[in-house]
Amino acid sequence: MNKKGALLEKEVINMVISVIGIAILVLLAFKLYGIFIDDPELIFAEENLNEIMDIADGLENGQSASVLILNLKNWYLKGFTKNDISCNSVSCLCFCEGDPNCGGKSECTDFDYDIFVNEVYNEHINGFLSALVAGFSGGHTIDPVFQEHQSLKILEIPEEIFVAKAEDKVYILKSKDSLEVETVGDLGKIMKDYSGCICGDRCEEYGASIASVVESYKNIDLAFYNEINPLLIVAIMVTESNCEYDLISNNDTGLMQINSGVFCESKYGLPTNLRECQTKLIEDDELNINLAVGILYEKYDEYKNGIRQSQSYLSNYNNLQVDREKCIAKYPKYAGYYGIDAALRGYNGWGCSDKVSGYVEKINKIYNELNALNIDEKQKSS
What is the C-alpha separation between 100 and 338, in angstroms, rounded? Predict the structure, then answer.
């Protein structure tokens, strides 16, 4: 072999080695990139799902255990059956970011048995498990509400949930502690101290009425009770009337600006005569507040799963979907309202003007300001 041929062979070998080296570096770069772009929240979701699965797999019929959910505040835990979304097993369990219908970012795992998710207090679990211990052969049945595929919102982290097993089915239930409405101090004083609430010497009276009305929903709808709070009702009152009991704006009347043109009917405990009705709404603050929370509850029931899952939208009465989609196109955030935020939007109406589009955000801002006063007041008194 001549010298030129030897040099050429050496160059070819070096070139091959260089190409192999570059290929290895590219592969390594891709692996490192994959590590860094992994979504940490999806990793947390997967870890929490694995923890739930480990607990569920270890339960015998009639047993329950608690699980702490970590790092997923304001995510939803949702159960699905086979053929729902991309579920190919008997059941699937998913963590979904900000959407109880799992329309966005989510992480799921398959189960080879039925699994149901429900937002209920743990006293339901106690009665539930008592029935299990007594034995289903004795005539006990499971309330059908437990066998609906609902969603459970993680409000705080860590948040405790319960996993119970019966007849080879698994039920995931929310704990009582996580559902308790956060403690509010002297509501009347908080209202008096808040500059936007002009309640004068009526603050204590309003505060007592609000607390009483909110507490009544504990035995009506626990999911709704979980989402409301006396401070939230105050925030609505501030937004609507600045806590002025005798304010009338068009037909909107009193503390919560009840539309007297719509609600002045006997079924709401109000006179049908407009002037008499407005007088009653002004003079009876508890009635005004009670009716407002009732309206909010109706809107919660209608819109809690989002505007596009509401009965009014799905029925498409009077071609409503077209109007709603126009609003959503103008204000995309409308499509992202769920739970109490969707109820607040419904309370004020799904208007498509800049004047009303910030209603939900305004109430949440006032709520946070009121809660800051609440925390400050509790710290001073402790």
Answer: 8
